[in-house]
Design a protein that fits this description.
The protein is built from two helices and four strands.
Length: 88
């Protein structure tokens, strides 16, 4: 499943208010997996050891595709500007 819901709309607002409806897309390692949301269509990286869920952006893609060696993740990368983190 790819991100077909580019505009956001009502489903994104429902996710903000009620939370996401996650499903597993792919196991990325022993403690991590790629999950997607049925409502808004976004993808996230989930780490069970640290107990964190992060938007699956180009940084997480780089980590799992190069460091861990998981193939076929490019289509799940989230490039939404709402998730851009700044350093400083």
């Amino acid at each position: 499943m790819t991100n077909n819901n580019k505009g956001g709309g009502v489903k994104r607002i429902i996710c903000l208010l009620l939370g996401h409806k996650y499903y597993r897309v792919k196991k990325l390692g022993y403690q991590s997996e790629l999950v997607g949301c049925n409502r808004c269509g976004k993808f996230y990286g989930m780490n069970h050891d640290v107990r964190v869920i992060l938007p699956f952006d180009k940084d997480l893609y780089g980590l799992y595709s190069k460091e861990v060696g998981v193939k076929g993740l490019k289509k799940y990368v989230c490039e939404d500007k709402l998730f851009t983190l700044t350093r400083g």
